[in-house]
Amino acid sequence: MRNGENCTILESEAAHFGKLAREWWDPKGSSAMLHKLNPVRLGYIRSMLDMHFRCDDRELKPLAGRRVLDVGCGAGLLCEPLARLGGEVTGIDAAAENIAVARTHARGSGLDIEYLHTGIENLDARGFDLVTSLEVVEHVADPAAFVTGLAGALTEGGLMILSTPNRTHFSKMAMIHIGEGLGQIPAGTHDWERFLTPEELSALLHDASMKIIDTRGLIMDPVKGLTLSDNMSLNYLMAAVRG
Fold this sequence. Notes:
By secondary structure, the protein is α/β, with parallel strands linked by helices. It has seven helices and eight strands, in the order ααβαβαββαβααβββ. The protein has a single domain (11-55, 63-242), classed as Vaccinia Virus protein VP39 (Rossmann fold). Strands 3-2-1-4-5-8-6-7 form an eight-stranded mixed beta sheet. The radius of gyration is 17 Å and the shape is globular. The two termini are 30 Å apart.
């Protein structure tokens, strides 16, 4: 992996997540919260695919014939379902350990996914129809350069979907004091000062010539569990298009 002067990767963050690689696919391990998040995030992605690309919501492979890039893919928790939706998927991550686990798991699942140990600024491939980066922008060295890199990987008319914690007092209490403090999230995963508000992320997308088409909150409901909401005080997802 080439690390130039414009590198968006924070080596300390890559090292932190690399240490979690072996447990990534264990729904009861250190990435348990990601396993709980994944169905909600996938439901949102599917709804945005159907809306933006005018897919039939009964279509089993709405990504057939489309190129997909997942940035900060970890060990492939999102890449694999995107591949099952028919996408030609590439996943990139700053931690070599994650990429190794992702490749092994994909082979065991019979999925053809390209995994690369690199940052968005060093990715040669362009022209993706869908670019996703979930719970990643708060871990990079330069969010503006990172979002610009994501936008640059999209084809004209392509769809980008991001998710990230909001920088509120509630998110600090829920994700750091409670989540990390009680061991539900690995200690040291989050730096609250690096969280982005929806207004800040919107500005970065606007500067990268992206048009926002949807924003939804993600909350923990005492009855439903993790669910989409108009309440963005904890976490939110944002969809944007290029062109």
